[in-house]
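Thread title: Can someone regenerate the structure for this chain?

I was given the following input by a collaborator and told the matching structure tokens would be attached. They weren't. Posting the sequence so someone can regenerate them.
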Amino acid sequence: MPHHHELRQDLPERPEPRQGDCRDQEDDGRTGGLSLRDRPLPPPGPIAGRPFSDDDPLFTVIVTDYEPSVSRDFLRRKMASLAGQTCKDFEVLVYHDGPKSQSYADDMAESPMHPATEFIVTPERIGDWGHAARDLGIRAARGKFIIHTNADNIFYPNLIAVLKDALTDPQPWTFVRNPQQIRIPASAKWLARMLNLDLQAMFRNVAPIEEHSTDPDILVYAIILRGNLPVASGMFRVFETAPRQGVVFGGVPVKFNNIDAMQLVMKRSLWLAEGGWHDRRINSDAIMYPLFAGKYRVLAIPAVLGEHW
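Best answer:
Regenerated them for you:
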């Protein structure tokens, strides 16, 4: 049966903002590179999580919720999409940012839910776009892989099954990564100038390295961005159009403003090694995810498996 925790006293106190946090700044809508404000913060170092066990589920789905922002009908729709998964090899952790006006038991009365579901209401609101809740979920998760999602997003019924098939396929996948960036000594640069050589062009022509493995570190799947409309070379969000309009969002290449938080599925061990969800700025997923993709094996799943609302 699902567990309901309306207050958890073991949650940490509200963290002090890190130097460089931008919690009170609005998204400026840029689609280009990283500004000084958006450059990655140094990770705090590895963190401890739940002990790993042979009977752990394959996935933990971490759902972030905030009652004033997400209608209870949308929450029930989300939970129904989890209950309807054809593969049940996952657990669900639902985090509400601060006290609620009514209990989750009332929210979900007579509504379908995945049996391995836990609801946690934090003692006070942090208001950091759900990042602190995601970090709590990473520390509490039992799944070997973690999926982040918001309470108004939808999972298609085959999402868990498709991801599991990719992870359990005995045939090796092919991964491609760029060679290690080479630091060119100043003496070599001076010699190159004397000989009129373009060192950067020479290194740009180095072929990527292929690797074969049955052990992906990260999965990235496609979604529909509801209410996003094409404009010039970008997109513009018109929420009222969400029921009828949207765009397919592949998440690849994994770069700033080109992937949504729900699209990257990463090993829990790597989340713990990276210090959890340590960046608390509004676009932290767009900042952290490209760093992860540059370090670990990424398998792109060529299927639309959910919707972002």
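The first strand starts at residue 3 and ends at 5.
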